[in-house]
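User: quick one, sequence for these tokens?
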């Protein structure tokens, strides 16, 4: 197995913080339960077709063929009962930092249950995305449960693995991250699919220690491919609200 630890050292401690003391980095590279992923190189990202996304959305180029097949299959299947669309795809470190620091009054470890700190989000890999389900579920006190009960989600759960997608954070996952029925990552339908081996290497630790459910082809270990490229010189993240305060 190639050294995934190379990915760990590529994530700068300065990317973890909103303000104040940075949270501790565990010996396995995790911060607030989230594994380190760095960021995807812009040259590997491409736009999801506009008719398959709620709004502008980019992913690694290798993901697009399966995502296209998945969402077009969903659109023509009466069992879906609506539409499934890409909602939130690749997020840069700066964007992820803005999401993570949105509620600074809440303790970082509480926020981290549902949002990864920058440098530790699957979204930054360009292989993960959140899906939107239509018709939209409104006025629901339990968003996860209500979405999970929709025909569109049930179709996705049954079919997404056939197109190379797996649910990263299933119910009661051992990683300690909140169940997110809308969040899936791409690892390809088989290791022979273009790009799948690299994606599987990037997620090797997550897949081994905190298995996805439903998962894809979990028995295969990748041992002979180079790791996917990631940024090695990342800008330190600063809280965008702090900048605004200084300008005032
Ligand atoms: Zn997500």
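Assistant:
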């Amino acid at each position: 197995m190639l050294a995934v630890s190379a990915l760990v050292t590529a994530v700068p401690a300065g990317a973890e913080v909103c303000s104040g003391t940075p949270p501790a980095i565990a010996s396995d590279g995790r911060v607030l339960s989230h594994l380190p992923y760095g960021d995807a190189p812009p040259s590997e990202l491409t736009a999801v077709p506009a008719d398959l996304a709620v709004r502008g959305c980019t992913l690694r180029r290798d993901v697009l063929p399966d995502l296209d097949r998945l969402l077009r299959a969903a659109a023509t299947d009466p069992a879906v009962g609506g539409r499934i669309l890409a909602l939130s795809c690749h997020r840069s470190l700066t964007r992820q930092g803005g999401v993570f620091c949105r509620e600074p009054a809440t303790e970082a470890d509480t926020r981290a249950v549902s949002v990864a700190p920058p440098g530790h989000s699957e979204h930054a890999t360009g292989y993960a995305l959140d899906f939107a389900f239509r018709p939209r579920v409104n006025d629901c006190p339990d968003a996860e449960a209500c979405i999970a009960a929709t025909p569109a989600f049930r179709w996705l759960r049954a079919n997404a693995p056939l197109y190379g997608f797996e649910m990263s954070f299933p119910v009661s996952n051992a990683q300690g991250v909140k169940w997110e029925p809308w969040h899936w990552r791409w690892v390809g339908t088989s290791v022979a699919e273009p790009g799948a081996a690299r994606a599987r290497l990037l997620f090797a630790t997550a897949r081994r220690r905190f298995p996805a459910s439903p998962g894809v082809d979990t028995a295969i270990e990748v041992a002979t491919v180079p790791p996917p490229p990631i940024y090695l010189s990342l800008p330190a993240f600063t809280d965008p609200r702090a900048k605004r305060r200084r300008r005032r």
